[in-house]
Please model this.
Amino acid sequence: MKRHPFEPARLISGLTALTLGTAYGLDALGLWHAPGPWLFLALPAGLLLSGITAAVRSTTRRPLTDTPSPSPHTDAPSPTDS
Model:
């Protein structure tokens, strides 16, 4: 199986959706009374946290070097070769 890169923003979004789905399900079954404002504020808060996480991760992931490495699949010589 192909491995996928770890994306913490998707993890936070998924956990938010799973938590809200569980809360609505328990409320519908009558096992737990979910406070209304809590459920309406949890989704935007989770999405905001996910967005902040994605922004921080994208700004902290920088290339290891500033110079681009030559592509191994090019047949043309580089301009510096004589």
